[in-house]
């Protein structure tokens, strides 16, 4: 049997009457396995196997509950609390020998220790993700809501406590500290909890999400500051030497903060300076940062304050974003947020006993206090939001977001149990209140706020219905520098002129790393992207060159969006909505090299494109760029100076939109436009009469233009089915630089018969999917167009 080294205690000569004896204690850690033991039941007597079994049981139960509860829109927090309640004395703990065998008191120390370590690093990462400068940049709405959400509840809670509870003769004096702690903790608004809720509901990048993040960050910083001051004063009051102890604690705290700021901050900047651009920070520095987290906990705990303030301050001091902040998050986030921090929630749930309750009078008062605090906090957010002209539904949703509770509140409640400020019964009720408030907030926000409705179009925002001489507004999105180069070709072909000016809004999409708050940077306002200046600057230069080339006819505006990939579509749609764009140009999720081989196939980019197609407030074009591919040597000498553009036309809204954009391009004297209409051999095929009229009218305009412009060619191709259509389109790949196609067509269209069955990329439609095939090695680009979808509320 493998055991830890025996510990010995020698008691000689230190106390009167001490004897020279040794005490040995064997701590069983590692097991030789169930088959290496005389009795397999002894397997659980070893600490490490027992701990691993406990983790496995907790993880399996939590994930199983979440698999069921997420279908009714309940957050993971609910599953974690319920898992603890099921494993605790409320349910399975009632089974004889269940707790003694699986969660013995001697083995509880490991779950307790690991959960606290996880929570410490969770708080540290929350501080790393926070950008305190956001507070300074926040608007008046965020400041108003954030400050009043702290000031009004604190004033109300203090009035109720000192005006009623502290004077209530019927309340035992040992219950008064519990009531005081409940009021203090209920007044907290935790930024990490709010950010987690917004991520779960997928509204972080919405206008409401940005307001909630900014307001909660302001509330969190100020409420933590107030709680720190209160804790410092309470140390002195409890010791009955108010002045000396309070001043000593305050000086110690101030010294710790200054030590962290003036040592960790310069070291962090030095590490960032030594890290090559675009590379993660060396793992050695991550290890040292983890050591500093533990040291910060020890220092703050010795100052007499809650241990969580040390990691939080340390996290705030470390610069967020790449390279240091993002590397810390990448290395630690999965382990911390995925397993260790949730372990604290389940551990708290395991201490809940909803069966054995005795002091029902005080427990009723607990629920009265919780309900009162909840009501006051809700009103303190809802009413100021209304006063700041936030729509009533959004104000109600914002209030539910701000009152939500989670791991931060549960940690404070657990500390009060350890400090014996509250008893087990009170803790059980408070944990149940966290569960109910979290579920209520999640459900109500999801019901009240539908972020898709702000993109619903009530007016036409497309190219077809815009005046031919009006300003054309395009939103061009880019993830890489190659995307900008490809978009530049399309913009040049758009040929802006004084009669038909072009306004381009360029959006550089950067994955959010090491931050909790998404950022939208407007480079025209002098804002700078500190995490990717070089990459953004190269893109800016391309658009500046475009604007200079068409001086007076084209204008460009550059933005950088830093967001999680799952929310990038919201930034794209929101910017297109605000800038009244007629079309969004998105880069395709595949990239080719000069030899025609695929070098990038990103599922994240494909998901972003699909989400934009569903929610866009205007038309959308997906650009499949193959300009990098070299032409065969036999054709390189026959290149025409004209930019060859073709439109594949089969009818419908999307084809008409593609043709409308191509008509604008045809004004360029350096562009040759060919419109190829595919007509079915079967003359008896029924068509939508209104669509047929609109198609005929637009094609008539093209034919008339072709009579006056030599660079417009119109031709018709009669086909029997999709196979003949595919042959003709594949032949076009060698003759054109750009082929424009519509995304959606009727399912029963004879010209596409059979092609729909082989559609691997539905977001491109049957024709676009055919032209996006990986085996095509010609330098032909494709623009797949979807006309604006007008939604009816």
General description of the model:
The protein has 793 residues and is an alpha/beta fold. It has 2 domains: 396 residues, Up-down Bundle (Na+/H+ antiporter like fold); 315 residues, Rossmann fold (3-Layer(aba) Sandwich). The protein is 53% helix and 11% strand. The chain has 26 helices and 13 strands. An 11-stranded mixed β-sheet has the order 3-4-2-1-5-8-13-12-9-10-11, with helices on both faces. Helix 2 packs antiparallel against helix 17, helix 8 packs antiparallel against helix 9 and helix 10 packs parallel to helix 12. It starts with 46 loop residues before the first helix and ends in a 7-residue tail after the last strand.
Compact summary:
It holds the Pfam family Na_H_Exchanger. The protein is of the alpha/beta class.
Keywords summarizing the entry:
transmembrane helix; alpha/beta; Cation/H+ exchanger domain-containing protein; 2 domains; membrane; Rossmann fold; 793 residues; 53% helix; antiporter activity; Na+/H+ antiporter like fold; CPA2_transporter; disordered N terminus; two-stranded antiparallel ribbon; eleven-stranded mixed β-sheet
| Class based on secondary structure composition and strand pairing | alpha/beta
What is the helix content? 40-55%
CATH class of the largest domain: Mainly Alpha
The CATH architecture assignment of the largest domain turns out to be: Up-down Bundle
Number of domains: 2
CATH topology of the largest domain: Na+/H+ antiporter like fold
- Tell the overall outline: elongated
Distance between the termini: 70 Å
Number of strands: 13
Q: Widest sheet: strand order? A: 3-4-2-1-5-8-13-12-9-10-11
Compute the number of helices: 26
Classify the beta-strand content into a percent band. 5-15%
What multimeric state do the chains show? single chain
Mean pLDDT, rounded to whole units?
Answer: 81
- Specify the biggest β-sheet: 11 strands, mixed
Poorly predicted parts: 1-13, 527-533
Q: What Rg is obtained from the alpha carbons, in whole angstroms?
A: 33 Å
